[in-house]
Design a protein that fits this description.
Mean pLDDT: 97
Number of strands: 18
Distance between the termini: 6 Å
Shape: globular
Order of helices and strands: EHHEEEEEEHEHEHEHEEEEHEHHEHEHE
Helix content: 25-40%
Low-confidence stretches: none
Structural class: alpha/beta
Largest sheet: 8 strands, mixed
């Protein structure tokens, strides 16, 4: 079995490698060559932790495995990140355990890559202003991945806690872009692309805030009850997602579908757009929205890419198992 430690991931994977892996697996899902298994997520009754796993099989790439982990809110006091993940890959021909891959950084990279894929395929080609709603740890990954997809000239941002906005400013500065902290109304008035990355259970961005032609990548809602944007905004937009079943039950579309404002049949996958079986954006005035719920196949795709690079570069650790 091969071990790729968490400490090696940063030297192996970057935004482009993650993008390529995620785009390819979204396309495989649309072709029916890859599928996710049911998600398990539970409160374990210890340390206030949420634990679960996501798994699936990519028949095209022969990638089989699972990501196991969750959220331990007390980890900060131990000098650890609250989110902990490990990916286990299996040989698709024999079922033998093939690799153990550190999944913390990979989770951040694959989440940002999904948003970037949506921007590449759905945002207007002339998009110039990137809007960021949320300034937590993941926001920096989102911004770095997003700016690779369009020739952005400026970043505007808003956060529930304004004292966290310097993270957005510093990330924008590192990318050579000016940053402006704005109200939600001003963010919607300026931004051509908006990435939302919060853990909110109440909408912040409303339908009235967003102008025609905007593309939104809503990346924070992955649990029943969470919500980042107004259900009326979801109803107004052309909605795309990673997996429709998750979008309507625990993703950003859950509230609009429950209220009867958006039909499940009206939601397409980003993989269909990649594969050319759905036109994607059809006009400059259309509002497009990507509901990034996060699927196990994304984790397996980036972990498999990291494994391959680790072997090529001689940093993989082999052990008898």
């Amino acid at each position: 079995m091969i071990i790729v430690p968490e400490a090696e991931i940063a030297g192996l994977m970057d935004e482009q490698a993650a993008y390529e892996a995620v785009e390819a697996v979204f396309a495989a899902m649309a072709r029916g060559d890859a599928y996710n298994f049911p998600v398990v997520r539970e409160a374990i009754g210890h340390a206030d932790a949420l634990y679960g796993f996501k798994s699936g099989f990519d028949r095209a790439g022969l990638v089989l495995g699972l990501k196991s982990g969750g959220y331990w809110p007390g980890n900060g006091e131990r000098g650890l990140t609250n989110h902990q993940s490990t990916v286990v890959l299996f040989d698709a021909d024999t079922g033998q355990c093939k690799a153990l891959v550190g999944g913390n950084l990979l989770t951040a990279l694959r989440t940002a890559a999904a948003a970037a894929v949506s921007i590449r395929h759905l945002a207007r080609p002339d998009a110039k202003v990137l809007g960021m709603v949320g300034a937590g740890h993941q926001s920096a990954f989102q911004m770095r991945a997003a700016v690779r997809q369009r020739d952005f000239e400026k970043v505007v941002g808003w956060n529930y806690h304004p004292e966290m906005l310097p993270r957005l400013a510093e990330t924008a500065e590192s990318l050579g872009l000016p940053f402006e902290a704005v109200s939600l109304e001003d963010l919607g008035a300026q931004a051509d692309v908006v990435v939302t990355i919060t853990s909110s259970f109440a909408p912040s961005l409303m339908a009235a805030h967003v102008r025609p032609g905007t593309h939104l990548a809503c990346m924070g809602t992955d649990t029943v009850g969470k919500q980042e944007v107004d259900a009326a905004l979801v109803a107004r937009a052309s909605v795309f997602t990673d997996e429709v079943a998750q979008s309507v039950t625990l993703g950003e579309a859950q509230h609009a579908v429950k209220a009867g404002l958006k039909a499940e049949a009206d939601i397409a996958t980003i993989g269909q757009v990649i594969e050319g079986t759905h036109p994607g954006r059809t006009s400059v005035d259309e509002i497009t929205l990507f509901d990034g719920t996060g699927v196990g196949l994304q984790d397996l795709a980036v972990a498999n890419r990291a494994l391959r690079l680790a072997v090529e570069r001689g940093v993989a650790q082999s052990v008898d198992f």
